[in-house]
Amino acid sequence: MAETTHTDPAGPEMAGPETAIPEPAPLKKVTRAQATTSGVPAKPAPRAKSAAGRSVAANVAPSPEIVAAPEPPARPANVEIHQGGADSVAGDNVQIVQGGASVVNAGHVAIRQGGIGNARADDITVTLGGVGIARADRVSVEMGGIGLALAREAHLTQGGARTILAQTVHVDQGLIGTAIAGKVTFERPSGVFMLLAGRTEGPVRPVLDWRGALAIGAVFGVLVGLIRRR
């Protein structure tokens, strides 16, 4: 029997009876795997350029805005109360004529035929009026009255005061319940019930001076001791 030879057009001649030609292996499809970053620190976000040329973080939360507290309203320069009343008054210069106010806080206070419950100022002047509590550097009362005066200088002319605590007190035809001061000057007929002062000038004789106050205090202490024993 004669041998036959098969010639493969794509390859060399191969000898042998009916030799099988191997089929090519199928192509494998390769897919690109997605890499994970588990356990690996993430890369920082890209930084964008600002208008000024500086780099800023892309995902950075904006800082909170700081809101400034509103400034208190400015105190008015001049306040006038004429034949009226007010609860609380503040100003550089407060003038009350035939009126009144509960609380006044000012630089200068002038009262004429009026009254104030509680006044705090650098200078308080009262004419034909009254003040319950006056706190000031200088207090002047003319033909008026005052309950309590706390001042550096206190002047009382033809008026009355229940209690005055000041460095210097000047009284001209006035009546005072209690005066505690470094120096007290009396002119013309004036009177004071209890006087505690480092220096006194003028024709006045208090009902109680510091000696009388001490004596009354001692008597009061004895009475309290006797009452407690009973």
Structure notes:
The protein is mainly β and 230 residues long. The model is unreliable at 1-17 and 33-38 (pLDDT under 50). Strands 3, 4, 5, 6, 7, 8, 9, 10, 11 and 12 form a ten-stranded parallel beta sheet that branches. A two-stranded antiparallel ribbon has the order 1-2. The chain has one helix at residues 210-229, and strands at 48-49, 55-56, 78-82, 85-97, 100-112, 115-120, 123-127, 130-142, 145-157, 160-172, 175-187, 191-201. Helices cover 9% and strands 47% of the residues. Strand 1 and strand 2 (55-56) form a beta hairpin. The chain is elongated.
Give the topology:
Layout: E1 48-49, E2 55-56, E3 78-82, E4 85-97, E5 100-112, E6 115-120, E7 123-127, E8 130-142, E9 145-157, E10 160-172, E11 175-187, E12 191-201, H1 210-229
Parallel strand pairs: 3-4, 4-5, 5-6, 5-7, 6-8, 7-8, 8-9, 9-10, 10-11, 11-12
Antiparallel strand pairs: 1-2
